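Example 9 (inverse folding). The structure is encoded as follows.
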């Protein structure tokens, strides 16, 4: 057949499709040799795609810390893996404040999702689209792409799943404060950091224009950060260094008008850190000229001024040039809609169990900022375990039996073991420890009720996991390992004993291991709080911060880019262009 004949045949086929009634317009693509079938239609029927091997389909929604860590560790030879996300890359979010001031370039902290799997030799499918609805009843998700690829051009499609892993993260929480969304910058995505960088430079360029009054220059160069958490504090420190080390030399006429303010509704900044770090950070900000306003609540933001209240001063309005809102996270619309469907409407985030399974629906897992592990009341399970152990209903158990019971409790609730080592329970813990190998002490009878009363306070000691990259990353890695071992653990369960049922759980529950936290404070000084109550602030800790953040990059490519950016900044300074 000639080339012109082939083209004619294609044109005829296209015309035939166009003349079909709306309900009949379908596109079927058969890929020979792979065994995959793609079936889609314009009226949002389910997109059924499989690789012909009969493997279970795992759909991951989101490419943040949890989603990328799961994808990085899942064995793609065991599952048919699909990823849906509006962004085809992973962002190393802890370095976003550095991007705002040109210390690190934006492309240095992003890793394409396809690169993550390609390096492991895995096969998966990725769709750059936003998931706007989850249907747990039909086990499908509804997606929308901005590219407009279907016949109607709206880019909507539906994907079915066997297992769904929800890692959509969270959005900035404005607390419904008027004017925040319209007039403030956020710092959650790479695009946010790039916008802030442009805005900073525009403020300096506006302040340098002729015929401006002194008040107008002060207004343009007043940078306000609302929120005294790690992100807000780090950005304030980065901005101060940018101004002091680079922009002051480039804009000598207006540098005296620069003012950086941090507004915090509470009594102190960095409240999640040790008090020693909080005090050092506040003292350092005062020494370097950063205006720290605590106990101020922002009630309104206009395009010209920020209105806030304080018990001592009342309501005041402060003019500003640029404002960054960094006060916490809120729930995404897709999660709010999903929670209504499964009976969690009154919650802020999705509730999961210790195995990251969403309460109220099967085969759906949620990780990262969009979910939290519901801490089961320890005493409810402890009471059930003791009832089983006390077969004769005597109300007492020997020390030996209690030790056996505690072994099961420790496996499920490590916080109980930690609690028994505290001052309140130290005598009881020492009694159990001293009885090892001593038959007489192990045969001693103890009152169960007294023991349960002593443990009653353990529930109040349990804290929710923080919404941090560290938690999300560990959750993604944990769940991927569970999926990789699912078949083995079905036959050889390795989890704790079921309290309400027989046998054991398939997997050990998720346990978060806190590896420490950093708070860069500017001037090549960083505060570090590491396990074991190790607190340190200074220049040496800054180099530890460099080492840790470089090692945590997802690839050698980004690792080399970030390190080279730091070296370039040391030699040439930060880039002040408005790109």
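The amino acid assigned to each position is listed next.
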């Amino acid at each position: 057949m000639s080339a012109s004949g082939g083209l004619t045949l294609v044109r005829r086929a296209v015309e035939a499709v166009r003349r079909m009634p709306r309900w009949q317009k379908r596109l079927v693509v058969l890929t020979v040799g792979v065994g995959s079938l793609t079936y889609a239609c314009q009226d949002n029927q389910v997109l059924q795609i499989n690789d012909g091997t009969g493997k279970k389909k795992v759909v991951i929604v989101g490419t943040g810390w949890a989603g990328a860590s799961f994808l990085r560790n899942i064995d793609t030879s065991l599952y048919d893996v699909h990823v849906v996300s509006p962004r085809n890359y992973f962002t190393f979010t802890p370095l976003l404040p550095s991007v705002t001031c040109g210390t690190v370039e934006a492309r240095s902290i992003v890793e394409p999702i396809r690169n993550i799997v390609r390096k492991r030799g895995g096969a998966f499918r990725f769709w750059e689209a936003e998931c706007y609805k989850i249907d747990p009843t039909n086990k499908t998700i509804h997606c929308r792409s901005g590219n407009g690829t279907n016949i109607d051009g709206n880019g909507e499609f539906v994907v079915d799943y066997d297992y769904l892993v929800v890692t959509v993260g969270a959005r900035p929480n404005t607390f419904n404060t008027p004017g925040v969304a319209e007039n403030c910058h956020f710092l959650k995505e790479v695009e946010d950091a790039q916008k802030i960088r442009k805005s900073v430079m525009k403020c300096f360029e506006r302040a340098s224009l002729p015929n401006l009054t002194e008040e107008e220059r002060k207004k343009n160069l007043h940078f306000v950060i609302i929120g005294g958490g790690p992100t807000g504090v780090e950005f304030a420190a980065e901005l101060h260094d940018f101004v002091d080390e680079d922009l002051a030399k480039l804009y000598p006429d207006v540098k005296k008008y620069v003012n950086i303010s941090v507004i915090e509704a509470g009594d102190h900044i960095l409240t999640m850190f040790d008090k020693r770090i909080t005090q050092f950070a506040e003292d350092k900000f005062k020494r370097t000229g950063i205006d720290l306003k605590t106990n101020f609540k922002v009630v309104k933001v206009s395009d010209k001024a920020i209105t806030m209240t304080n018990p001592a001063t009342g309501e005041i309005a402060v003019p500003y040039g640029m404002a960054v809102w960094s006060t916490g996270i809120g729930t995404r619309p897709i999660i709010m809609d999903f929670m209504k469907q499964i009976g969690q409407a009154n919650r802020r985030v999705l509730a999961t169990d210790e195995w990251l399974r969403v309460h109220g629906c099967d085969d759906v897992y949620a990780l990262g900022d969009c979910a939290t592990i519901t801490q089961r009341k320890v005493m409810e399970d402890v009471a059930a375990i003791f009832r089983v152990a006390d077969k004769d209903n005597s109300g007492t158990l020997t020390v030996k039996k209690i030790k056996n019971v505690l072994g099961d409790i420790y496996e499920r609730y490590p916080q109980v073991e930690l609690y028994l080592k505290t001052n309140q329970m130290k005598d009881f813990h020492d009694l159990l420890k001293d009885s090892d190998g001593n038959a007489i002490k192990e045969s001693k009878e103890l009152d169960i009720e007294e023991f349960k009363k002593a443990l009653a306070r353990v529930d109040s000691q349990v804290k929710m996991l923080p919404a941090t990259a560290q938690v999300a990353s560990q959750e993604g890695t944990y769940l991927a390992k569970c999926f990789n071992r699912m078949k083995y653990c079905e036959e050889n369960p390795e989890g704790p004993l079921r309290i309400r049922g027989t046998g054991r759980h398939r997997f050990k529950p998720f346990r978060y291991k806190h590896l420490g936290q950093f708070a860069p404070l500017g001037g090549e000084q960083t505060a570090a709080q590491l396990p074991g109550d190790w607190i340190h602030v200074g220049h040496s800790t800054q180099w530890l911060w460099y080492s840790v953040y470089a090692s945590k990059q997802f690839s050698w490519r980004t690792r080399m880019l970030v390190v080279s950016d730091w070296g370039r900044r040391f030699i040439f300074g930060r880039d002040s262009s408005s790109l």
